[in-house]
Amino acid sequence: MSKTRDNLPEVTVQSTAETSALLRELVAHLRQNRTQLRQEWARRITEAKLLTAMSQEEIFAEATSVYDNYVEALETGTFEALQAYARNLSERIIPRGVETHEVVGIVLLLRDVLARSLFAKYQHDFGLLNRILDAYEPAANRIANTVAVGFVQERERTIRQQQEAIRELSTPVLQVRERLLILPIIGVIDPQRARQLTEQLLRGIRTNRAKVVVIDITGVAAMDSNVANVLVQTVEASRLLGATVIVTGLSPEIAQTLVTIGVDLAKMNTVGDLQGGIEEAERLLGYKVVPFGESIQQA
Amino acid sequence: MEVPILKQGHYLIATFQAALTDEDLLKLQDALVERVGKFRSRGVIVDVTALDVMDSFAARTLRALAHMVRLRGADTVIVGVQPEVAFAMVQLGLTLEGVATALDLEEALLLLNSRAKGVGARAR
Fold this sequence. Notes:
The complex is a heterodimer. By secondary structure, chain A is of the alpha/beta class. Chain A has helices spanning 9-13, 16-32, 34-47, 56-76, 80-93, 100-122, 126-169, 191-208, 225-240, 252-261, 274-285, 292-298; strands at 174-177, 180-186, 212-219, 244-248, 269-271. Chain A folds into 2 domains: 2-167, Histidine kinase N-terminal domain (Globin-like, Orthogonal Bundle), CATH 1.10.490; 174-298, Transcription Regulator spoIIAA. Chain A has 12 helices and 5 strands. In chain A, α2 packs antiparallel against α4, α3 packs across α6 (100-122) and α6 (100-122) runs antiparallel to α7. Chain A is elongated and about 100 Å long. The model of chain A is unreliable at 1-13 (pLDDT under 50). Chain B is of the alpha/beta class. Chain B has a single domain (5-117), classed as STAS domain (Transcription Regulator spoIIAA, 2-Layer Sandwich). Helices cover 50% and strands 18% of the residues of chain B. In chain B, strands 1-2-3-4-5 form a 5-stranded mixed sheet, with helices on both faces. The A-B interface holds A 198-199, 202-203, 205-206, 209, 211, 233-234, 236-243, 267 and B 78-79, 81-87, 89-91, 95-97, 101-104, 107-108.
């Protein structure tokens, strides 16, 4: 039987046949008292102020299906269905702001409610109660484990997805004029983001046939030698593709840091702010911006 | 495999068809430096669009080539470095400093033409 496979030795001493017989008895008991235990559980959840993001009816509905899945897992000893259910449940409740401690809390509450009902039922026969608990505890622990792990995994998957999305949105390469790109950088640059930034810029240069690129780092709060290095590398790689890079928006603090740590920025073309950078880029491209009236006078 | 060198007006154009051995690179370098004088060329364009990898020897040879051609009185433009190649080169510190680069052949011709005009203007 798969459920006893990775249990501790002292539990497997009890014959598997006996364990399954006890579990059957247990399941029958839980089925019989379904309504009452479920209500008790829902009451305890509310009392403990768990799942506050959900309404009373929702809690009761979820409690019912968790309860049924729980009993089924106890009965069959297989956890695939429960795993799938836990994943599905997590998918639904994570966006509503349900926390890990709440999910673990409600499963542990259910475990407690069921154990108490067992105490009440078998209190006259201590030996039988012991054997029932021997059968019940490992399975209940595994169920609690499965649900908690399922929830955490789902949460991590969501976080990963969101990180991916943020990363993709965080480095836009924008064309402002024919052959002129700007790359505004905002926030913290870690090595991974730096790499992605460089790649996106290089690809952007190729697809937009850019000649001049303005990298604006007004939104970068701090810069260390690693980030400065990445910046230098990006500038050089862009040059290899035939594009000129202008860096704008270095704050006084960053300028001081860079000079203090001795980064060689001699190769970099820097201009005070984004406006200046775009004007310089236009000059390099041979554009001249004149007020509308003047251009008419000239024509 | 030898790299064909085409003469186009005042310029010489060498297009890499595939990855080259070190020996081929040196041959190309010799041939270009020689022909710049023979055809009285004003510019050399080396197109590396077909390369998906550039090792340190190739980068060094291209830089040396550009400097030699400069000494023979012409400009060199490297064109068509792929984004991935550029990224890898910079990581290895192979930045072709002092060598002009352009996105493609068209850009390179524009660049060389504008330089020629600049020289002409100064001469006048």
